[in-house]
Design goal:
- The chain is an alpha/beta fold.
- The chain folds into 2 domains: about 5-160, Rossmann fold (3-Layer(aba) Sandwich), CATH 3.40.50; about 175-325, Glycogen Phosphorylase B (Rossmann fold), CATH 3.40.50.
- It is about 35% helix and about 15% strand.
- It is built from 13 helices and 12 strands.
- The chain has helices at about 10-20, 20-30, 45, 60-65, 70-80, 95-105, 135-150, 155-160, 195-200, 215-225, 240-245, 260-265, 315-325, and strands at about 5, 35-40, 55-60, 85-90, 110, 125-130, 175-180, 205-210, 230-235, 250-255, 270-275, 290.
- Helix 9 (about 195-200) packs across helix 13 (about 315-325).
- The radius of gyration is 20 Å and the shape is globular.
Length: about 325
């Protein structure tokens, strides 16, 4: 295998959970040139990665928003110009990602029609892999890539992985540091800010840094910091700075969203809180655990109006945090 293109356009957490495959591709095919195509907004996370030869960007989000036909034509021409590949692997399994893969070349591989949410995507692949959609997302990503390239990524490899992204030291002025990730793509995935305050109060011996990604999240972060003496608002972080920040923290507690998933990627302890989604979205390890609400989740029909995450008790989170930190 000489040249491989990986297709994972979005979102941040999904790209993080997909990028673990890079180290295993290089282990089994050390001379392979790996390239990646993603949405432009997420490119900084992947650019200059030592295992990637090139990162290609597109902006389908902008096209969807503006309905600009000339932008679509430009995007198609750009994908056509990427070059030739021995294998193009779609790790996303949506019609849009499958189309991008097929425009990039004919040697496409992806999930079969029974293994993805948008079964029509399978029509654009030359070869396919079969793995249940209900399976863990990291295992799915690993399986489709390994299957395409002729090797197996097993649980032992995932448990003993190297950190996924290169990182630099981060100068924390305190020790015993916990990051709170309070944002999420849907309101129902967000743990109540009042409950996060209680978590901080139950863990008084630790220092909390509250990560935020937009103005609304910053307001919530300020609210938490104003009501918990051991909490402070983290600075505004670029994607690269976020990697450094998370890589040097002791524990991450947060919602089902990208920065929380980054902890697992960087081999940092984490507690991920789930309400309308469940632990399928993370790869659990002895130091990366899920806490689920009492809700019964149907991953084929996600209920975005399920606010049961608020039923996870702050004391439960605090107890698990102490267990993880004592273990470290």
């Amino acid at each position: 295998m000489k040249k491989v293109l990986l297709v994972r356009l979005s979102a941040l957490g999904d790209i993080i959970n997909s990028a673990v495959v890079l180290q295993f591709i290089k282990k089994h095919h050390p001379n392979t040139q790996i390239e990646w195509v993603c949405e432009e907004v997420f490119a900084p996370l992947l650019q200059n990665h030592p295992l990637l030869h090139k990162v290609h960007t597109i902006n389908l989000k902008k096209f969807k928003k503006e309905k600009n036909f000339s932008l679509l034509v430009q995007t198609i021409k750009k994908v056509h110009s990427f070059g030739e590949y021995d294998k193009i692997i779609d790790m996303q399994g949506l019609i849009k990602s499958a189309l991008v893969a097929r425009i990039a070349g004919k040697n496409t591989h992806g999930f079969d029609k029974n293994s993805t949410r948008e079964s029509l995507a399978s029509l654009f692949y030359a070869t396919t892999s079969s793995i249940g959609y209900e399976q863990n997302i990291v295992r799915r990503n690993s399986f489709v890539v390994g299957d395409a390239l002729g090797f197996n990524i097993d649980d032992s490899m995932l448990l003993h992985k190297q950190k996924v992204f290169p990182s630099n030291p981060y100068n924390f002025k305190t020790s015993n540091n916990i990051a709170l990730v309070i944002g999420a793509s849907w309101e129902s995935k967000k743990y109540p800010k009042e409950h996060f305050i209680q978590v901080c109060q139950l863990l008084r011996e630790y220092n909390f840094y509250i990560i935020w990604g937009n103005d609304a999240e910053k307001e919530d972060a300020i609210f938490i910091a104003n009501n918990a003496k051991n909490a402070q608002v983290a600075p505004k972080l670029s994607l690269k700075e976020l990697v450094d920040f998370i890589s040097n923290i002791d524990l991450v507690i947060g919602n089902d969203t990208g920065p929380t998933h980054l902890a697992w990627a960087q081999n940092v302890a984490s507690i991920t809180l789930f309400g309308p989604t469940n632990e399928r979205m993370i790869y659990q390890t002895p130091k990366n655990i899920a806490l689920n609400s009492p809700s019964s989740v149907d991953i084929f029909h996600i209920n975005k109006n399920d606010f049961s995450i608020k039923e996870i008790q702050p004391q439960t989170i605090a107890n698990k945090a102490k267990e993880l930190l004592d273990g470290i």
